[in-house]
TrEMBL record:
Domain of life, per lineage: Bacteria
HAMAP family: NDH1_NuoB
Region: Disordered, residue numbers: 1-28, 188-217
Species per Swiss-Prot/TrEMBL record: Actinacidiphila polyblastidii
Name the UniProt record assigns to this protein: NADH-quinone oxidoreductase subunit B
Gene that encodes the chain: nuoB
Length: 217
């Protein structure tokens, strides 16, 4: 339709559905839990969105043992990870983008870690800080210790050490920011790419039994 027809009172052209942007050679993924803006945004817009997400990480610190002291040191004036765009001590999990699990995760504490992770909005990230959180550390053979927080929630970055220095946490944050800068939400939540992450059903299954209602007793 040319401009003369449009000015002459002809019907306005109907909007055209735009295909989802794809990287060259990439397989088409069916996005899940993504709105049309996230699916149809051009690549420059996705770069801007990732940039904003990268430098506005609200941290929910799940401190369980001595590594939590090193996290506090990293957030204080000497190391000051706020200069990296990381805001410590979010009011709660529903306002957080990043959970840092620092310390020994016990089997008794595991349901609380999982429940608070489920309360965080997407997209959300996890840093496992210290040997105990990574694999159980010196207590790996204890009957009451979970052999790594990745047994119950997905982990994006592992920071080794017993305990790690604050500089190690800063490096872990930089590694996470590099990952966020190059990620695609379609790939992160697509059906094929989700194979490496626990499913929604797995993250909402059985560690914590719901309280019984009066009619079930």
């Amino acid at each position: 339709m040319d401009m003369s027809e449009a000015k002459g009172g002809a019907a306005a052209p109907r909007p055209v559905s735009l295909p989802e942007p794809q990287m060259p050679g990439a397989q088409r993924l069916e996005p899940q839990r993504l709105g049309p803006l996230a699916r149809l945004a051009p690549e420059p817009m996705k770069v801007v969105l990732n940039w904003g997400r990268r430098y506005s990480l609200w941290v929910f610190n799940f401190g369980l043992a001595c590594c939590a002291i090193e996290f506090i040191a990293a957030s204080m004036a000497k190391h000051d990870f706020i200069r990296l765009g990381v805001i410590p001590f979010a009011p709660g999990p529903r306002q957080a983008d990043l959970m840092i699990v620092s310390g020994t995760v016990t089997d008794k504490m595991a349901p609380a870690v999982k429940r608070l992770y489920e309360q965080m909005p997407e997209p959300k990230y996890v840093i496992s800080f210290g040997a105990c959180s990574n694999c159980g550390g010196p207590y790996w053979d204890s009957y009451s210790v979970t052999k790594g927080v990745d047994q119950i929630i997905p982990v994006d970055v592992y920071v080794p050490g017993c305990p790690p220095r604050p500089e190690a946490l800063l490096q872990g944050i930089l590694k996470l920011q590099e990952k966020i800068a190059r990620e695609s939400l379609g790939e992160r939540y697509g059906s094929d790419a989700a194979a490496g992450r626990p499913s929604t059903a797995a993250l909402t299954s059985g560690l914590v039994a719901p309280p019984a209602t009066p009619g079930e007793r």
